TrEMBL record:
The lineage of its organism: Bacteria, Pseudomonadati, Pseudomonadota, Alphaproteobacteria, Sphingomonadales. It comes from the Bacteria. The chain crosses the membrane at residues 40-63, 75-94, 101-120. This is Ketohydroxyglutarate aldolase. Keywords: Membrane, Transmembrane, Transmembrane helix.
Length: 123
């Protein structure tokens, strides 16, 4: 049992050394092309700007449609929007592709924007 642990530790230490050497010399790093970088960049933009847009539209729609006083509806809608924004960001990184993530966020923004437009201004 002891010999097995020593061998396992030796293998683990050797693999860690290899990783450290690769990072230090730059040989162990994977080189990603422009497609991979564009994929990540589009997901980051979708996850940040798209999340802000969808959360703002969700807050606006809920503030106009919740059956409460104006101040209570605004506070409640804002708190719910704080839950929507991370969901949109997570969706941006879980979608199969960056264009599918962008399409999902745009569709959500269009639906919520339509809801805001249909709800109109509160009296």
């Amino acid at each position: 049992m002891m010999r097995r642990r020593i061998l396992c530790w030796h293998r683990c230490a050797r693999s860690i050394e290899g990783v450290a050497e690769g990072v230090a010399t730059g040989t162990g790093q994977r080189h990603h092309g422009w497609r991979y970088r564009a994929n990540v960049a589009l997901r980051i933009l979708t996850g940040t700007i798209g999340a802000y847009l969808v959360a703002a539209l969700a807050a606006a729609m809920l503030a106009r449609t919740l059956p409460m006083s104006r101040a209570e509806a605004t506070v409640t809608a804002t708190m719910i929007a704080y839950l929507v924004a991370p969901g949109v960001t997570i969706w941006a990184f879980l979608a199969r592709g960056p264009w599918r993530a962008l399409a999902g966020v745009v569709m959500a923004a269009l639906v919520l924007g339509g809801g805001v437009w249909l709800a109109g201004a509160r009296a």
